[in-house]
Task: inverse folding
């Protein structure tokens, strides 16, 4: 077996037993990247030299994760290595500081393999909106890997990185994880510091892990979670060990299954595989009940209003003045701004900035932004009602499996539907995890989403772990393309 | 119709930089000066991914200002983003407060020729300052300096309660003095830490208010007064000539003494305010508010009362002294040293006011302790008051201990009776004519003789002693 095929906890076991060295692990991944990258196109930047150099001097006493490689989505700031957000705007931008999560990764003495491709500024659901070109799905190179963290999910699925740090604003961790057959977690808003994550929509963004299995996911969450005084929205809570209760089972656990998430627009095979998994939970002693959460349409509308409004303001700083792309030709200040932004941003980013600017403009603010905030409160209340009764909710992660590259990228509305099952979780700030629960008739992975209570990561990880153990997805299925 | 038939309505928006050590959303220094872009970090340079964290001191200072101006303090308020593009605004939005400011509904009292008048304070909110653009000499390039970006400001919006440039000037000076007293801002207009935009409208008495214009870019109290007088007259002229006032934003040109249109109402920017998602609710608990209230120092009104009652200073003098925190503090310290408030007040009202220019009654070259020591020397009889004036001039030129000055210059008063008697005798010998004059009833002759003695001793002789001894000799 190749080292790159192992999970992180398996690698740690071998490191602890002195069977392998950090350098061997890193070299194994670098070789794998060099072999696969031309087909997958998961990376924006590969830090091969630095990674190998660092792997030669790893002090394993520093932490149990010392010497473990990792891939980083290219919207997380890394000092000295460019952070492009897959945009022409930041093609050559090098951050002068590390994101808080990078400080934590570095404190563990882990090894960064490179920066992973994404939809430009995390706006998209297929990674086709990357300035550097689309990432391919390792299960079928003609299919999208999902997005916006398509580079991260594809790299984990294709064993090009053992795990990755990504961001999720409306499903950007969970949806590509589902389409690539890996595990993706969006933590509760405030659990992981956003400092150094290039902001898309500040009230929705969270950094989360994409991993090969649930145990790795819990481990990576252990590393990145925690209060940060540099992020005013980060929560002051005691540190937890998310691996501790993984194996506790689901006996007596109350699972709600909102029927609206299994209705029109959801692929039949997706429904079937998830229902099978839910049956499994029943057999294992969980109390499963159908419930109603009739907010999907509203959630999508609220999401696109709030996310675009915040994005239109957050992306204002890319003005060609201090860093990033500046137009060659301009006659005055207005032209400097307009030309730099017109040339530096891609079509989808511009579409969302225009939408966001519109919903915030005077005369429309009340009808859109303010109303969206009210509906957001309503959606929160709906979730709260359900969580009085249930410990977790289970839904599909994505309405469909991976689709052909190029089939939706020209139809923004259809693309937005990919977020149908995931956005409400961001709107209410709850944690959600996607795990693979089977493949469709074409061998493409299907993702199941488990939604938990606020800061209920332990519970959803436990629920996810159990299904993973029973389904044995990783043993049964491998990306067809190797 | 004439000027007298019109009434002017004036409202002021004051921006005062808070004198916190660090910026409003990061821990960079706020010091004025410093090489361009040296007091900056990822947050105030708006690097991608950087996030603001509200400096608690800023809230405390703003609450202080609110309490000192009799505002209600909102138990919950929030920050909002004001979006616009400009090179000195690194995030392309300013974090400010829109519909839920920290302080609302205050008032301050000013003295006008018609007596005391209350000026309403609509609101006080916190926000961040922008950077500065430096335009180079060749006119092609502008360089951005972000040292000032993120320096905390409070914006203090008055009700349209002011009726003349004089009232506006009095209000501004009062506001400045309050902010200085509570030590939340140094209010240095020349460094831009105290700036005012003016809203002016005119209407015929008895009629509805007119359309207002906003004037910007005034950099001194004098230019604010000039701009208001100009603005009122311009609007009256327009109305008198049958024209209509447009709701424009105007830029004051200090050199030309007139305004130019910066923006018309149609060009008004849509700032697309919305709640700042990176920051939480600003909470001011009752306990915190009371703690801040307790920390408020003695205010000018209270000091004035104390000066009149305890020190028996005239009301006029007390008013002048408390009008500036600097002067008042100067008075307090000097008085503590010499325990002679009346004398300190006299020095302030005459010699100190004289050397201060009208804009900045701020920085004396010497310390209040040194003035106090000078007064002690007079009170002990070590120097005469005429020598004291010379010591004062010396303090202005080269401040040091007054005792050192008089020793160095040999200005110690001659108070030895024997020594003075010798001098008196010498002067009388030299001026027999004056003795005759005096005896003939010309009292002026005594003054002449004393003057001669002073001249001979270079002012050092004790004048009381001189007088006494001359009289004794002349009576012989």
Result:
């Amino acid at each position: 077996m190749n080292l790159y095929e192992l999970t992180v906890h398996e690698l740690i076991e071998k490191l602890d037993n002195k069977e392998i060295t950090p350098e061997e692990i890193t070299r194994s991944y670098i070789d794998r990247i060099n072999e696969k990258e031309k087909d997958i196109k998961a990376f924006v930047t590969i830090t091969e030299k630095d990674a190998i150099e660092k792997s030669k001097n790893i002090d394993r006493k520093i932490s149990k994760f010392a010497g473990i490689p990792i891939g980083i989505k290219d919207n997380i700031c890394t000092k000295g290595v460019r952070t492009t957000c897959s945009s022409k705007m930041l093609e050559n931008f090098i951050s002068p500081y590390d994101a808080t999560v990078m400080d934590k990764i570095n404190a563990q003495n882990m090894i960064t393999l490179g920066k992973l491709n994404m939809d430009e500024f995390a706006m998209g659901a297929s990674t086709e909106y990357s300035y550097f070109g689309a990432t391919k799905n390792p299960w079928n190179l003609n299919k999208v890997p999902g997005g916006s963290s398509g580079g991260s999910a594809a790299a984990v699925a294709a064993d090009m990185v053992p795990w990755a740090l990504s961001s999720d604003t409306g499903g950007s961790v969970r949806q590509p994880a589902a389409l690539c057959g890996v595990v993706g977690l969006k933590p509760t808003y405030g659990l992981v510091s956003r400092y150094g994550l290039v902001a898309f929509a500040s009230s929705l963004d969270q950094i989360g892990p994409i991993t090969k299995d649930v145990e790795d996911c819990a481990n990576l969450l252990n590393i990145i979670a925690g209060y940060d005084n540099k992020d005013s929205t980060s929560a002051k809570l005691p540190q937890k060990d998310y691996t501790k209760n993984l194996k506790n089972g689901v006996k007596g656990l109350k699972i709600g299954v909102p029927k609206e998430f299994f209705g029109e627009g959801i692929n039949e095979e997706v429904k079937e595989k998830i229902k099978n998994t839910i049956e499994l939970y029943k057999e294992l002693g969980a109390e499963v009940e159908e419930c109603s959460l009739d907010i999907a349409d509203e959630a999508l509308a609220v999401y696109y209003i709030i996310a675009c409004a915040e994005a239109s303001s957050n992306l204002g700083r890319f003005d060609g003045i201090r860093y990033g792309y500046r137009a060659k030709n301009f006659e005055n200040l207005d032209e400097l701004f307009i030309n730099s932004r017109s040339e530096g941003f891609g079509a989808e980013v511009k579409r969302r900035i225009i939408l966001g600017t519109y919903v915030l403009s005077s005369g429309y603010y009340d009808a859109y932004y303010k109303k969206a905030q009210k509906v957001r409160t309503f959606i929160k209340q709906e979730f709260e009602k359900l969580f009085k009764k249930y410990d977790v909710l289970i839904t599909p992660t994505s309405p469909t499996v991976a689709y052909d590259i190029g089939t939706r990228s020209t139809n923004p509305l259809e693309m937005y539907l990919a977020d149908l099952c995931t956005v409400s979780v961001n709107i209410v700030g709850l944690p959600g995890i996607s795990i693979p629960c089977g493949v469709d008739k074409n061998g493409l992975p299907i993702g199941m989403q488990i939604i938990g209570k606020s800061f209920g990561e332990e519970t959803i990880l436990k629920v996810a772990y159990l299904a993973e153990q029973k389904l044995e997805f990783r043993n049964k299925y491998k990306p067809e393309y190797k | 119709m004439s000027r007298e038939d019109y009434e002017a309505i004036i409202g002021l928006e004051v921006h005062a930089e808070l004198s916190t050590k660090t910026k409003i959303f990061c821990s960079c220094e706020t010091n004025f000066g410093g090489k361009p872009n040296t007091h900056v970090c990822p947050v105030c340079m708006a690097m991608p991914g950087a996030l603001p964290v509200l400096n608690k001191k800023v809230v405390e200072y703003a609450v202080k200002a609110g309490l000192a101006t009799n505002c209600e303090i909102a138990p919950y308020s929030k920050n909002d983003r004001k979006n616009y593009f400009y090179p000195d605004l690194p995030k392309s939005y300013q974090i400010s407060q829109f519909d839920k400011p920290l302080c609302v509904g205050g008032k301050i009292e000013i003295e006008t020729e018609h007596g005391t008048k209350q000026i309403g304070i609509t609101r006080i909110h916190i926000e961040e300052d922008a950077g500065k653009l430096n335009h180079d000499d060749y006119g092609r390039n502008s360089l951005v300096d972000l040292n000032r970006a993120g320096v905390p400001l409070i914006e203090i919006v008055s009700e349209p309660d002011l009726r003349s440039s004089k009232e506006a000037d009095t209000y501004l000076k009062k506001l400045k003095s309050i902010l200085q007293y509570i030590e939340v801002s140094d209010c240095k207009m020349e460094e831009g830490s105290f700036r005012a935009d003016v809203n002016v409208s005119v209407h015929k008495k008895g009629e509805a208010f007119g359309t207002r214009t906003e004037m910007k870019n005034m950099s001194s109290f004098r230019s604010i007064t000039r701009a208001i007088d100009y603005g009122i007259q311009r609007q009256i002229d327009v109305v008198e000539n049958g024209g209509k006032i447009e709701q424009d934003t105007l830029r004051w040109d200090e050199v030309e003494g007139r305004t130019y249109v910066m923006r018309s109402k149609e060009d008004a920017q849509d700032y697309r305010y919305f709640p700042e998602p990176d920051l939480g609710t600003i909470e001011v608990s009752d306990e915190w508010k009371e703690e801040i209230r307790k920390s408020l120092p003695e205010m000018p009104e209270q000091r004035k009362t104390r000066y009149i009652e305890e020190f028996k200073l005239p009301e006029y003098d007390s008013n002048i002294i408390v009008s500036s925190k600097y002067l008042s503090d100067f008075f307090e310290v000097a008085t503590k040293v010499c325990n002679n408030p009346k004398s300190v007040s006299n020095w302030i009202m005459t010699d100190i006011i004289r050397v201060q220019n009208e804009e900045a009654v701020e920085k004396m070259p010497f310390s209040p302790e040194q003035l106090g020591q000078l007064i002690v020397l007079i009170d002990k009889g070590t120097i005469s008051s005429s020598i004291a004036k010379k010591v004062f001039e010396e303090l202005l030129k080269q401040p040091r201990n007054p005792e050192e000055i008089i020793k160095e210059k040999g200005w110690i008063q001659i108070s030895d009776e024997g020594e003075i008697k010798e001098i008196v005798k010498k002067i009388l010998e030299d001026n027999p004519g004056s003795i005759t004059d005096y005896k003939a009833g010309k009292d002026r002759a005594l003054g002449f003789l004393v003057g001669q003695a002073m001249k001979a001793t270079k002012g050092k002789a004790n004048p009381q002693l001189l007088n006494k001894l001359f009289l004794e000799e002349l009576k012989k």
